[in-house]
Amino acid sequence: MADIWRMIGRRLLLGILTLFVISLVIFGATELLPGDLARELLGQSATEETLAALREQLGLNDPAPLRYLKWLMGVLQGDFGVSMATQKPIAELVGARLGNTMFLALYAAALAIPLSLVLGILAALWRNSIFDRASNALALTSISFPEFFVAYILVLWLAQTGIFPSMVRITGSTTFGDRLYMSFLPALTLTLVVTAHMMRMTRAAIINLLASPYIEMARLKGMSPLRVVLRHAVPNALAPIINVVALNLAYLITGVVIVEVVFVYPGLGQLMVDAVTNRDIAVVQAIALIFATAYVLLNLIADVMSTITNPRLMHRR
Amino acid sequence: MTIFLSLIVGLALFFAIGISARAAFRTLAPDHQKPTFRDMPLTASFGIAIILVYVLVSLLGPVIAPFGEGEVVGAQYLPWAAPHYLGTDKLGRDMLTRLVYGARNTVGIAFATTILAFVVGSVLGIWAALVGGWVDNWMSRFVDALMAIPALIFSLLLLTIFGTSVLTLILVIAAVDATRVYRLARSVAQDIVVMDYIEAARLRGENNWRLIRREILPNAMAPLVAEFGLRFCFVFLAISALSFLGLGIKPPTADWGSMVRENATLIAFGDVTPLLPAGAIALLTVAVNFVVDWQLHRASGLKE
């Protein structure tokens, strides 16, 4: 047991270090500008007075390391600064939307993970059959589709007939059931986009193992193919499968941006796109940091979980 | 019902194009290449045929297109009828014309971006593997840090800082994707730089640039070419996504991503016209993926 905690602690430290570097990159990117941010935002025709006022507002008169420290201290206390476009505190803007985005991502994950695991195992079980080939071709196809294409096909097909709403309007009084119903189409879009990759990797991970001698042994004992796959192949394929699942959940984070825009879903992605259009740099930095944190956390969890499922990694000396 | 009908028509077209393209490749290929095409899967021949069509359309764009790129030719949102075979968009521009020009702009920009990402990424990656030591260490750690931020999020951040124009779009996406190419090129090159012939070339007095160009690159080509296809798909989808979000290629330039956005209101009325550019994006990515899949399968010599 102590080994697990030590490993988790080590990974956590590494994750915090990664986050620190990410925050440096996110903050430091603004320093890459040839001029300064104020001139870039206001354009060439800006007068010296307005430039000076904006510099004052953005705190650009301080040296960069000092500004970074101030920003980081604020972020650690949940204070991301003030949005330039709306003059509201960013924490307030982000707060409710973060919950909505996480709800959508979790919803999509709850649909996609069981679906892709079952499909992947079935494809491995019946490999080279019609089912396998068709699902393989379908998976390749759906990987290649832009998210907004999938989204609009679903709108055309399911929202046109009035079965599901094509826009999501969440208010304080929306019940959980209503939320599930209203966000079904965005969640389904995300599911379709990530399922293909997870399914293909699950299939590949299992098929890789099916060539090993112990599987042949199990077969020679007269086990049914389903039992061979479920009892012998899947437990050993768990580590790569967990990694792929985490990778795709991380992918959900970016997929969410486009899907939210299509369905007018009140989440972080939509806020970010608006902020990019307005060049509201403080908001973009805050959201980028949140998404990056989620990304790092997911990878960390996957790392820990795949180690726990594999005794060979657990007892490595 | 229409969904299933179009599915059946789509499948029929897929088989027709695939089979006829395969037959054409078999007869047209020079003799020493014939075995390559002999047991080519249908998906691959379909993919190659589609890619050829796209290349033709983008090269011959102005000849094929019935109207000018930004020309307003009629009322808004006209239905499908001659002379506007695919109707008109929200400003009354001919849809078919803009689709044809879109092939040029969208695919051309994506291709240029991928090439840029590849040149930068692979040269730096191979150089890092060749030189090793602290250069390699620092560059790789730096790339790791950049890769820890999701690609789309990082591109959005950079676009906010540098503003949205076609040039910044190309540079930003190329920079983000170069990090991925760097990783692959470095890991491939690491296996090559320890070979004896590299040692021999070094002793001959070849400099680093020549080593990269003449000794390492030719041997690292196979995985890099497959990666090029995949990378192109990612870049193409990323650019379309950004254009769709209104942050990429801007009107009046005809571009598939922004065309979907401009005419999206029509979808609410059950019209499929806005989906055509999205479908054009999807079809090309599918085609490239099919061909890459075949190449990877061939290269790995995998027989399940």
Automatic annotation (TrEMBL), chain A:
It comes from the Bacteria. Keywords: Cell membrane, Membrane, Transmembrane, Transmembrane helix, Transport. It holds the Pfam family BPD_transp_1. The chain crosses the membrane at residues 12-33, 104-126, 138-160, 180-199, 241-266, 286-308. Signal peptide: none annotated. InterPro entries: BPD_transp_1_N, MetI-like, MetI-like_sf. GO terms for molecular function: dipeptide transmembrane transporter activity. It is found in: Cell membrane. Residues 98-302 form the ABC transmembrane type-1 domain. It is a multi-pass membrane protein. One of its GO terms (cellular component) is plasma membrane. Belongs to the binding-protein-dependent transport system permease family. This is Peptide/nickel transport system permease protein. It comes from Sulfitobacter brevis.
From TrEMBL, chain B:
Residues 103-296 form the ABC transmembrane type-1 domain. Signal peptide: none annotated. Pfam families: BPD_transp_1. It is a multi-pass membrane protein. InterPro entries: BP-dependent_transpt_permease, MetI-like, MetI-like_sf. The chain crosses the membrane at residues 44-65, 107-135, 147-176, 228-249, 275-296. One of its GO terms (cellular component) is plasma membrane. It comes from the Bacteria. Keywords: Cell membrane, Membrane, Transmembrane, Transmembrane helix, Transport. CDD domains: TM_PBP2. GO terms for biological process: transmembrane transport. It is found in: Cell membrane. This is Peptide/nickel transport system permease protein. It comes from Sulfitobacter brevis.
